[in-house]
Amino acid sequence: MNESDNILICQNLHKDFIDGKRIVKVLKGVNLTINRGERVAILGPSGSGKSTLLHLLGGLDRATQGEVILNHENLAQLTEKQRCALRNHALGFVYQFHHLLPEFSALENVAMPLLIRGEQSNVAKEKAREILIEVGLGERTSHTPGQLSGGERQRTAVARALVTNPLCILADEPTGNLDQHTAEHIYEVMLEINKRLNTSLLIVTHDVHLAKKMDRLLSLEDGILSEGK
Ligand code: ADP
Ligand code: MG
Questions:
Q1: Per-residue pLDDT tens digits for 193-202
Q2: Calpha distance 170→10 (Å, rounded)
Q3: Whole-model pTM?
């Protein structure tokens, strides 16, 4: 994997949605560069297009116009298969709702991205165990999501995003569902890992206090991304 500085770039990104007969312009020319190890927060009111932007950056949806360059590859120029492979190697996703598989243990959930990559089960489980210990869940590896608290579930989701040692974590309101104390803890976990592994963080939130823990604060308003709050 290329370790050079700009790991995620978007240029003049536009996204329109068709709503009945109306065209809704959600993103109107977003530019963003994220460097290796950088910690960036995006603030914006509900409906401002934050999730839409993360979907485009993660190659989960296509832009109406503009480019996304992930680890020096233009996402639009890849086949679906190549895009999936790049996403699996370069990115980790954390969502507001954990999206853990209810019938699997924390360990199995965290090992899943490695198994999808084709790693051997015992190797995948060992890596999953290490990262679960790192997020403070070493004693909870065999619990299913239903046996974990909200904060523990979200830490498991963070561990799952990190297990592949991605260049960048894209987190969409990762603590939107948690109380302030638990939310702070999740941020501390992510910041620790950012320091240790130099994983870039792009976190969408509407919590200004949490956003200020990042290096850079951006606001998404009226389809435009700008510096500061
Ligand atoms: P946020 O995450 O900031 O709350 P979203 O990115 O979810 O905002 O949505 C931004 C706008 O785009 C909203 O007005 C939403 O209704 C619209 N939108 C999002 N996804 C779709 C879609 N698939 N089809 C039509 N409109 C959509
Ligand atoms: Mg959203």
A1: 899 889 999 9
A2: 14
A3: 0.92
Residue that has been written with the tokens 């995620």 in this structure: 8
Ligand 1 atom with the smallest distance to the CA of 48 is 3
Find out whether 186 and 175 touch, Cβ atoms under 8 Å. Answer: yes
Ligand 1 nearest-atom number relative to CA 18: 25
Q: What is the DSSP letter of 141?
A: T
Distance in Å, CA 15 to ligand 1 centroid: 10
Q: How far apart are CA 160 and CA 165, in angstroms?
A: 10
Q: 3-class secondary structure for 59-123?
A: CCCCCCEEEEEECCEEHHHCCHHHHHHHHHHHEEEECCCCCCCCCCCHHHHHHHHHHHHCCCHHH
Coil, strand or helix at 137: coil
- Cα–Cα distance for residue pair 115/113, rounded to 1 Å: 5
